[in-house]
Amino acid sequence: MVGAGSDGSLDVCARVCVIDEQENVLFEAFVRPLLPVTHYRYETTGIRPEHLRDGASVTVKSAQRRVEELLLDGEQPWRARTSRGRARLLVGHGLDHDLHALHMDYPAYLKRDTATYPPLMKTSKLSNSLRFLTLNYLGYEIQTGHQHPFEDCVAAMRLYRRMRGQQHHPRADAHAPAPAADDQQPFPSWRQRELERMTPEDLLRLSTPDYHCWCLDA
């Protein structure tokens, strides 16, 4: 991202990279932002004005169209919203931010975001940086100089593959003896009555995790 606006604090897309699961580059290009660039953030991005000139870059619309073609893989956009079909999973870090910069949307159930996947988050509300996750989960450093989108793509994909490959194991205390009745903490009586009135379907929804485990993608 480069900066736009009077103080250069507005993030605008200036470079796009899309890879497949085998880390092959499917699309990579410099992108001419819709707004005038006021801060190239060269120390981080490595982008200079000549990279965004006509002939050296593509328009936001062209980049958007190409990314959509790769993601949908021939599937109709309206159909991909409810049924995956040929549409592909989108893996990345901070996907909503990146999609917003490209003026794009993509179905939530097809997104695999390493910034918001609960097992990779610092807290339920706070994400870890991609650099931190790559160092601690993959064992190598990224973003040590100019940030290259290909490097970030590869790191996010490797994190996804690692988390997808994890197996669920029974809890160590699954077969431990149940606590004595006096030690148990029952629901308050009002809550107990509320649960008893629920249908099996309601109870199932209540017990379902609020996130999709990536191991189910395997």
TrEMBL record:
Gene Ontology BP annotations: rRNA processing
Q: Which GO terms describe its cellular component?
A: nucleus
Q: Which domain of life is it from?
A: Eukaryota
Keyword Nucleus recorded: yes
Exonuclease domain residues are 1-169
Q: Which GO terms describe its molecular function?
A: 3'-5' exonuclease activity; nucleic acid binding
Asked if Hydrolase is a keyword of the record, the answer is yes
Q: Which Gene3D superfamilies match?
A: Ribonuclease H-like superfamily/Ribonuclease H (3.30.420.10)
Skewed-composition ranges (Low complexity): 175-186
Q: Where is this region: Disordered?
A: 164-187
Keywords of the record, alphabetical order, are: Exonuclease, Hydrolase, Nuclease, Nucleus
Give the InterPro entries listed for this entry. REX4_DEDDh_dom (IPR037431), REXO1/3/4-like (IPR047021), Ribonucl_H (IPR013520), RNaseH-like_sf (IPR012337), RNaseH_sf (IPR036397)
SUPFAM superfamilies noted in UniProt: Ribonuclease H-like
Cellular compartments annotated: Nucleus
Q: Which family does it belong to?
A: Belongs to the REXO4 family.
Q: What is the name of the protein in this document?
A: RNA exonuclease 4
